[in-house]
Write a structure and sequence with these properties.
heterodimer, A: 510 residues, Aldehyde Dehydrogenase, Chain A, domain 1, Aldehyde Dehydrogenase, Chain A, domain 2, 2 domains, globular, B: 429 residues, alpha/beta, Aspartate Aminotransferase, domain 1, Aspartate Aminotransferase, domain 2, 7-stranded mixed beta sheet, 4-stranded mixed beta sheet, 16 helices, pyridoxal phosphate binding (chain B), transaminase activity (chain B), Acetylornithine/succinyldiaminopimelate/putresci ne aminotransferase (chain B), PyrdxlP-dep_Trfase_small (chain B)
Chain lengths: 510, 429
């Protein structure tokens, strides 16, 4: 029996991630030459596979992370699979797009290799979302999940990768980092083989993405103010706010943080909120909550995405079994008041304000430190108020008379449905819109002189990457089994009705 | 001044002069006269730098020795870590490293039972021949004309006369040579029923990678079985994923009785070779396990490197890379053959084992020089100078592959120029 064994550590260096990026580069180079038919076939197959597993991954994500509500995660997974595909499939992300009037031709140029950081809060939905956007734009994607959600994300990525290849995608088009860690993530972000980092996560990760030197789209945190004025339908407003705040237990960063109620209707709104399912906290409950939610290190991770009843119990008080939101009246709308900060849990601040001017001041104060450029909501019938509020609050999307969690993320509104909300320059991001396929590609333009005496070329029917003498065949692609038009129409209708139905049940009475 | 700590040189010229004086005059002068004044200095990945600083992409990779690139960081870390605990070891005794590597090899070599280690391919081939002779109790070995299996006592006799006659080491009575891809000749040789084994490079490398005809390897194996001979696959250049499968014989669907691997398994940093044997062909180890002794065969630090090599090769990313490289270079050369058919006429390819065929009988010599001038180092086939050995390593990235093709295209006019000045063109005309 050996008394001593060599303690040799051979795991100090492993270049598996470099090999992944090399593989992704091949995939990206190959994929960039696919035509729209072959591209859509792949995206559709992947979206369908993702959709079919929405419930399983919803359950898995909640079990693995402890965040959120299974049923709501299932809905998000469905919307971020077939919902996303349906939203973008009719747009041309490939080109060539010929604009005879302006004498321009645009040719789609995918980013190439995308490193996608996905959060623990919306893990699989973000994997689905970013992957489908990447496929629609013919990019290779390397998913780097949050360590707290690595198992469900890796499993989902493997499923999508297998489906993609089965549908004709180049090998390695979807890959996943199985053992993510801060050094691994930083190494990958700074690797010159990555063309674009799409970072959804905390501010530290987003800033690191921008520091990496690689082009990056990072999005900052939210802290959504919601203003309710006297012109609003209070019952409807209260129902929407509670639905939104309890949706996946406020894990979407588009959730409402503080209700700013016009003084005249504030008490009435409190009542309707209680009827809609909010528990009104007493001052002592408020202080217990404060102690539980914030510690020296910041927001208590144990509270993220938890049910209101669990949070109340952890604080030592009980709430009615049907209460879904903890409503906390606050009197000082200043940064030192904890409850004015972002809360990824069903805890909602409540403060009366004198009118839209004070609401704007309060909203600006709330988001001065964090949450700028993200989302805001308003419940009002007054266009002047809505316009002034939207123009002045530091948010790049103001949702009107709708639940902010879903509406700002593009569900039930015509914003791009997304798991990645651009917070723009005011939110430390290069991306101001909701992340869409357009964010993941460039267009090369062919520009002719405006002088009409010089002829504009005929580009109809040309394959962009084919030179006159080229013998290189178009990369191996699946047989062109373009879905018959009626089949597409049928699918489109199925998806629309699915999305309608899901939204109706999830959003209540919108 | 080039200061390497333990020695210094004032210039590259000084190195070349002293190399002629003290090391190998003929070899040193050969390259100087061929216009390839290379003294390799810095090296990393698939890029080497001459002492002058000239940068070259390495497509020679010494027959697969640098399959993973030069100074592969993972392999270096592995070797450094192993050296914290191990040295060459004592060949007489069982060892943890040799045992672990042998087990790992047997696992990735279906049909084989033992791994016997040697410090280099030539000795591993000698072991293969000895094993075949023991198992069959026959003496004769058949190989192909212009085959290449190394330079030691037995292995050199299997190869081209150029390397054996000079040392009076040819043994025509025991070593029979038949033309490649000629099954009739092979059967004629085997039908004497006194042949111990046929030894075949799965794709003959030094001959310029002529591709075996469909079913050739399998038919040779069948003939071996019919006439009681064994089939030895020399996998030095075709193993380790270079043909797209772990071993070249797997690509051709043939099950050898013995096979040999070397070069790449060293990772380019610790000399290593292996002879894979079955229960039957390794039977001599039951009778006298010390019948073939190799003090540094299976040296323990090399076992760690080889284990890491096997691990890297089993990553799906690496396999994918080989398939992409195969397709990319295949497409690129098809295009060149079409557009520059006066210079490049064909591509012999199995995975990343490639031979580029030139129209001119010595075209590859000129191509090698033109490529050298344009930043790519690829060597012609010494036994068929019409063919350039074109051997990207399995980890080559798409970006570097694209650069290789760019440089090849840029070098084409220079190839044309050199070929047009070549005396043999006038002689041929």
């Amino acid at each position: 029996m050996a008394t001593e064994t060599a303690k040799l550590n051979f795991s100090s260096h492993s270049d598996t991630h470099g090999a992944m990026l090399d593989r992704a580069r091949w995939a990206a180079t190959t994929f960039a030459r696919y035509d729209p038919v072959a591209t859509l076939k792949i995206a559709k197959a992947v979206a369908q596979a993702a959709h079919s597993q929405a419930a399983r991954y919803a359950e898995w994500a909640v079990k693995e992370t402890g965040f959120g509500v299974v049923e709501h995660k299932r809905l998000k997974n469905e919307l971020c699979s077939l919902g996303i595909f349906d939203t973008y499939k009719d747009t041309d992300w490939t080109g060539p797009a010929i604009d005879g009037d302006r004498r321009l031709v645009r040719i789609g140029r995918p980013a190439g290799v995308i490193l996608a950081l996905t959060p623990s809060t919306n893990p699989v939905a973000t994997v689905f979302f970013k992957t489908i956007l990447a496929l629609l734009t013919r990019n290779a994607i390397v998913i780097c999940p949050h360590p707290a959600a690595k198992a469900c994300c890796a499993d989902a990525a493997d499923l999508l990768a297998a489906e993609a290849v089965k549908a004709g995608a180049p090998d390695g088009v979807i890959q996943v980092v199985r053992e993510p860690s801060i050094p691994v993530i930083e190494g990958l972000m700074g690797d010159e083989r990555v063309d674009l980092v799409v970072a959804t996560g905390g501010p530290a990760v987003v800033r690191a993405a921008y520091r990496s030197g690689t082009p990056a789209l990072g999005v900052g945190p939210g802290n959504g103010p919601v203003y309710v004025d006297s012109s609003a339908d209070l019952t409807a407003a209260a129902a929407r706010i509670v639905e939104s705040k309890s949706f996946d237990n406020s894990i979407l960063c588009t959730n409402e943080s503080v209700v700013l109620a016009e003084k005249g209707i504030a008490n009435q709104l409190l009542d309707t909120l209680r009827t809609a399912g909010a528990h009104l906290c007493s001052p002592s409950e408020r202080e217990k909550l404060r102690a539980f939610l914030w510690n020296d290190k910041g927001f208590n991770v144990d509270a993220i995405g938890k049910d209101a009843s669990i949070i109340a119990r952890a604080c030592g008080f009980t709430i009615a079994s049907n209460a879904k939101v903890l409503l906390v009246p606050i009197d000082r709308l200043l940064p030192e008041e904890h409850f004015t900060r972002e809360k990824l849990c069903p805890v909602l601040g409540f403060a009366p304000v004198g009118g839209v001017d004070e609401a704007i001041r309060a909203a600006r104060s709330m988001t001065r430190k964090s949450g700028g450029g993200h989302s805001a909501a308003i419940h009002s019938q007054n266009e002047t108020t809505i316009m002034a509020y939207a123009a002045a609050v530091p948010a790049l999307r103001t949702v009107v008379n709708a639940p902010c969690s879903q509406g700002a993320a593009g569900f039930g509104t015509n914003l791009g449905p997304t798991m990645t909300i651009g917070t723009g320059f005011m939110g430390g991001s290069a991306l101001g819109e909701n992340l869409t396929p357009a964010s993941l590609m460039n267009w090369s333009s062919i520009a002719y002189p405006t002088d009409e005496r010089l002829p504009f070329g005929n580009f109809e029917g040309l394959t962009p990457w084919k030179t006159p003498s080229s013998t290189v065949s178009v990369p191996a692609q699946p047989a062109r089994s373009a879905p018959a038009p009626h089949e597409l129409a049928l699918l489109r209708e199925q998806i629309r009705s699915l999305v309608r139905e899901e939204l109706k049940s999830a959003l209540g009475r919108t | 001044m080039f200061d390497y700590g333990m020695f210094k040189f004032s210039s590259k010229e000084e190195v070349i002069e002293k190399s002629i004086a003290y090391w190998n005059p003929g070899k040193t002068k050969f390259w100087r006269d061929a216009g390839i004044d290379l003294v390799i200095d810095k090296r990393e990945g698939y890029v080497i730098h001459d002492m002058d600083g000239k940068r070259l992409i390495d497509l020679h990779i010494n027959g697969g020795t640098f399959n993973f690139g030069h100074r592969n960081a993972e392999l270096i870390d592995t070797l450094k870590t192993a050296l914290d605990h191990f040295d060459i070891g004592n060949h007489w005794f069982p060892s943890v490293a040799r045992t672990a590597l042998a087990e790992a090899l047997v696992k990735v070599c279906p049909g084989f039972d033992y791994a016997f280690f040697a410090p280099g391919g030539a000795e591993a081939v000698d072991v293969a021949i000895k094993s075949a002779r023991y198992a069959t109790q026959r003496r004769k070995i058949v190989s192909i004309i212009k085959g290449y299996h190394g330079h030691s006592g037995l292995s050199v006799a299997t190869g081209d006369a150029r390397f054996s006659k000079i040392f009076l080491s040819d043994r025509p009575e025991e070593f029979i040579h038949v033309p490649f891809n000629d099954l009739t000749a092979m059967e004629r040789a085997l039908s004497s029923r006194d042949i111990a084994a046929v030894i075949l490079e799965t794709i003959p490398a030094t001959y310029g990678f002529p591709m075996p005809h469909d079913g050739y390897n399998q038919s040779v194996k069948a003939l071996c079985e019919r006439y009681g001979a064994l089939y030895i696959a020399d996998e030095v250049q075709t193993g380790l994923l270079r043909t797209g499968e772990m071993w070249g014989w797997q690509s051709y669907g043939v099950q050898p009785d013995i096979f040999v691997n070397a070069k790449g398994i060293s990772g380019g940093i610790y000399p290593f070779a292996v002879t894979m044997l079955t229960k039957r062909t390794g039977a001599w180890m039951e009778e006298d396990g010390a019948a073939h002794i190799s003090t540094s065969g299976g040296a323990e630090p090399g076992c760690f490197v080889a284990l890491k090599v096997l691990e890297i090769l089993q990553r799906p990313e690496v396999r994918a890379n080989v398939h992409y490289l195969t397709r990319y270079f295949g497409d690129a050369f098809r295009d060149m053959i079409q557009n520059d058919g006066d210079v490049v006429v064909g591509l012999r390819q199995k995975g990343v084992v490639m031979g580029v065929e030139f129209a001119h009988p010595e075209g590859a010599v000129h191509a090698s020089r033109a490529l050298y001038e344009n930043g790519v180092w690829a060597i012609f086939s010494s036994l068929d100078k019409r063919v350039l050995q074109f051997k990207p390593g399995v980890l080559m990235s798409s970006t570097l592959a694209e650069e290789v093709v760019d440089r090849f295209r840029v070098a084409l006019p220079r190839m044309r120029e050199l070929i047009s000045q070549a005396p043999s063109v006038r002689a041929a005309a």
